[in-house]
């Protein structure tokens, strides 16, 4: 594996682990919210929104790590029947014609969305809601940039698989 792939993998592993730690915070926040609501009749829109924002960050920032771990959704019943060479060809095709264009499309569409939210200092429309909506919205292009990078790492790995497969007698 080349050093670019190793660096991308390490980056996504580190970010994925950090995002996973948000799960502990989310659990504590939900417990606080539920306890406050049922024991003290206390709840705010900000707490509910924060729960959804953290959940979104966990999901978005772990997607590249999920690809790194090869745990993404795929029809394994069919895929596993193919030889390593054909699996590599399928993966290369998928990265080039599905993952890469989709990531570029989402990045291109989401950056103006984030810039607009930042420019107007968008906040929740709910009373007691959260300010600085651009923070959560910025997770969208960041996660898709990381997913695109992980796709490049995956592509390099599969190209190496093809090279190894064709160079062996």
Quick recap:
The protein has 169 residues and is an all-alpha fold. 81% of the residues lie in helices and 0% in strands.
Overview of the structural elements:
By secondary structure, the chain is mostly helical. The protein has one domain (3-167). 81% of the residues lie in helices and 0% in strands. It is built from five helices and no strands. It has helices at residues 3-40, 45-68, 76-79, 84-119, 133-167. Helix 1 runs antiparallel to helix 5, helix 2 packs parallel to helix 5 and helix 4 (84-119) runs antiparallel to helix 5 (133-167).
Please tag this protein with its features:
169 residues; mainly alpha; 81% helix; cell membrane; DctQ; cell inner membrane
């Amino acid at each position: 594996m080349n050093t670019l792939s190793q660096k991308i993998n390490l980056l996504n592993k580190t970010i994925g682990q950090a995002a996973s730690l948000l799960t502990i915070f989310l659990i504590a926040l939900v417990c606080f919210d539920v306890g406050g609501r049922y024991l003290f009749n206390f709840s705010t829109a900000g707490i509910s929104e924060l729960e959804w924002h953290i959940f979104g960050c966990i999901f978005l920032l772990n997607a590249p790590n999920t690809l790194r771990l090869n745990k993404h959704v795929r029809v394994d019943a069919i895929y596993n029947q193919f030889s390593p060479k054909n699996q590599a060809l399928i993966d290369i095709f998928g990265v080039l014609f599905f993952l890469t264009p989709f990531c570029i499309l989402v990045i291109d569409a989401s950056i103006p969305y984030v810039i607009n939210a930042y420019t107007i200092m968008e906040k929740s429309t709910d009373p007691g809601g959260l300010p600085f909506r651009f923070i959560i919205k910025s997770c969208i292009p960041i996660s898709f940039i990381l997913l695109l990078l992980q796709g490049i790492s995956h592509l390099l790995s599969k190209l190496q698989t093809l090279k190894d497969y064709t160079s062996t007698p």
